[in-house]
Design a protein that fits this description.
6 helices; about 20% strand
């Protein structure tokens, strides 16, 4: 009988730990909405829509290593800086269902160029465009 109690306790601990890990991953990715948010980014990039992309940004953000403090400053960069042919191709190729959360956030693209987003004050937002 003692063995069954130990097995039950160990099983409950494993189940509890597994559940905590799943909730942590979802909250780190913004409540599990990272695929939908990445889809919005892909659409804005495909359309080369500066307004739509600006709405998805969390300010300040880094663009090509430069800190951009406001939406207005982002818009002043211009579409030519943001929607390079290489960046557009990389973002188009991203499989939104396979994205993973990292310490930096969710990285769309395997190297540079890329777009990075994460939860900022409880909302998903783009924090880097490289």
């Amino acid at each position: 009988m003692k063995k069954w109690k130990i097995l039950l306790a160990v099983g409950a601990m494993i189940f509890a730990c597994a559940g905590c890990g799943a909730r942590q991953t979802e909250s780190a990715a913004g409540g599990g909405d990272s695929a939908a948010f990445a889809g919005q980014i892909k659409e804005a990039v495909a359309d080369k829509d500066m307004d739509a992309l600006a709405e998805l940004c969390a300010y300040p953000l880094a663009v090509n290593g430069e800190v951009i403090e406001t939406r207005e400053a982002f818009m002043e960069l211009g579409a030519d800086v943001i929607f390079t042919e290489e960046r557009c191709a990389v973002i188009e190729a991203v499989d939104v269902s396979a994205l993973e959360d990292t310490m930096a956030g969710v990285i769309m693209g395997d190297a540079t160029p890329n777009i990075i987003f994460k939860s900022v004050d409880g909302e998903l937002g783009i924090t880097g465009i490289n």
